């Protein structure tokens, strides 16, 4: 990790803070190549049943795709 690079743990933490501030919800779904797809969406919108990853176009949920993270640590690694 570079000197000026934010780790995925901290990046996800900021995404969650921003989502909460805006009244949104964060959902993590296993990506099609592993890792996690991060979706920020209104609380009343839920991933469609059987939704697998950001490339799955079921009911347009992929419009809420925000980030992809290969690995999310259990603590800050910045």
Order of helices and strands: HEEE
| Structural class estimated from helices and strands | alpha+beta
Estimated share of beta-strand residues: 15-25%
Helical content class: 10-25%
Distance between the termini: 8 Å
How many structurally independent domains? 1
Number of helices: 1
Number of strands: 3
Biggest sheet architecture: 3 strands, antiparallel
Q: Give start-end ranges of low-pLDDT stretches.
A: none
Summarize the topology.
Elements: H1 8-21, E1 25-30, E2 36-41, E3 65-69
Antiparallel strand pairs: 1-2, 2-3
Task: Describe the structure concisely.
The chain is of the alpha+beta class. The protein has one domain (8-69).
Structure notes:
This protein has 78 residues and is α+β, with helices and mostly antiparallel strands. It has one helix and three strands; from the N terminus they run αβββ. It has a three-stranded antiparallel sheet with strand order 1-2-3, covered by helices on one side.
């Amino acid at each position: 990790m570079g000197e000026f690079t934010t780790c995925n743990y901290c990046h996800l933490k900021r995404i969650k803070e921003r989502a909460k501030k805006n009244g949104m919800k964060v959902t993590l779904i296993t990506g099609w190549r592993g890792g996690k797809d991060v979706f920020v969406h209104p609380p009343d919108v839920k991933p469609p049943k059987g939704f697998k990853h950001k490339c799955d176009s079921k009911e347009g949920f992929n419009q809420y795709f925000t980030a992809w993270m290969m690995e999310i640590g259990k603590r800050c690694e910045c």
